[in-house]
Structure formats: structure tokens, C-alpha cells
Amino acid sequence: MKLQTAARKRAKIKMALQGPSGSGKTYSSLLIANGLCPNWSKIAVIDTENGSADLYAHLGGYQVLSLTAPFTPERYIQAIEVCEKAGMEVIIIDSLTHEWENLIDFHSSLQGNSFTNWGKITPRHNAFVQKLLQSQAHIISTIRTKQDYVLNDRNGKMVPEKVGLKSVQRDGMEYEFTLVFDVDMRNNATASKDRTGLFYGKPEAKLGIHTGATIKDWCERNEDEESIDISVRINDCRSIQELLDLYKQYPQYREARKAEFEQQKRKLILQQETASSSLTKNINPNGTHH
Hints:
Layout: E1 14-19, H1 25-36, E2 43-47, E3 63-66, H2 73-85, E4 90-94, H3 97-109, H4 114-117, H5 122-134, E5 138-154, E6 157-167, E7 179-183, E8 188-194, E9 205-206, H6 209-220, H7 223-236, H8 240-249, H9 258-281
Parallel strand pairs: 1-5, 1-7, 2-3, 2-4, 4-5
Antiparallel strand pairs: 5-6, 7-8, 8-9
């Protein structure tokens, strides 16, 4: 047992696409997978959606593992292991929703105390989550969403009101992933969680092969290379807004590179003041230039 400095070297992305049925999660996942791995034969889809993965066979010769009921965590784990043993570099799990629905159904069938019965559910779900996180393959998971409601008091009556979409998985599941995209019915996506700093705060956009290629580049950089790149980009900023955008894009470097951000900020402010002073000196009282 020994301590060592934390460093990200050739990471494997663990990401999720969540959205309503028909939003294009499967198609987008395949495109991202191809950006992560140009060799289609090294991409596998664990399909729980009645053969929906086969609809996009024209994209390339990816592998499909059809998973049928019961959708237990243990069967998902076995499916992942099959893909790993076959040397798959990217595994798409389409979708995670069935695993949680299976556990909910199992919980409702148990006799006795409902709260205590969760002790029979949580360890199984956690084992599945750990399998996802510890896999040596890139993992792209899809998660269905549904309309969420809250009860509000209106004139003494409790009335349900829509409050947006909610993923059909265990609460907090999204926190397990490095990157989560919310996909709408127009197939546009925004990052609701992003530890890479690549997509958070960016306008909605279509996901594609370019998305996977960008993620791959991030995964294959080691910490030293990326840190040097951030320093170069800080020095290349030519406006306060550009510097602020960079600061927001990489929250993981805010503390480590705080001095560099502040130094570049002062430099840009000084340049603006110098340029403004120079302009003022070159304008005579009549408003004409010398």
C-alpha cells in the first residue's frame, strides 16, 4: 500500500445519454462510439430494446448482444463480461432503465418491511454500478426519461404539476458518470454533467462522431500534457471574455491555474487601458485625429 499523486492517464469514458423514447439515444451513442473507436467490429451494443440496435446496421459492422428478460443486475454484469472477453473497446448499454425497473418490480414483490427490503436491492445495484465504472472499455449508457410531477396545494387541493423530465433509474445514478448528455426529441443534446470540461455550458448541439473523437482525445491525454495545453490556451487569450470562457470550461483547473488566470487577466486589462489611453491622446478637442 502506498500513496501516489493523482493523475489521469488513458482514461476510459463512462458516460450516459438520457432522454425520452424516440430522441435518438441509440443512434447518437453509435456515432459517439465510432468517434471513440474507428473499428466498428470493436464496438458492442447490449440491446434490451427489442432489437432497436439492429436498425442502424448500415453504419458499420458493430456487434450486438441481445439481452432479454429478466433484466437483473447480474445478467447485465454477465453481458458486460462477455463483451470484455471478446475484446470490445466500446460497450453501449441500451438501456440502463430495464435494470432499475427489474429491481423495483422485485422490491414490490417482497414481503415484510419495505424499508428493510431495500437492503436486498441496493447491494445488487451497487455491484452493477461498480462493474460499469471498473470496466476497461469505454461505456456509453442510455437512460429513458419520463415526465416528472410534484403535488402543489391549490385552493386546498393537492394538484399534480409538471416539473420536467426525470431519468428512469435510481436517483443519483447520473453522478456515477463522468459525462451525461440530455437529449431532446429534436436529437439536440446538452451536457447536464461534465467532468471533462469539454461540453458543459455549451449550446445544444447534435451528437456525432466528432463528439466521440473529442472525448477520445481527452481520454488519451495524460495530466501533464493537458495541464501544459491549458497554460498555452490561457496565454493565447486575447480578451477578458475569452479568458472567462476558458475558466468556465475547465473547472478542474481553477485552483491549480488560478495565478496564471489572474496574471493573464491583469495583462489584458493593462492592454485595454493602454489602448484606450493611446486613442484618447490621438484625438484633439475638436474630435479629429492628429
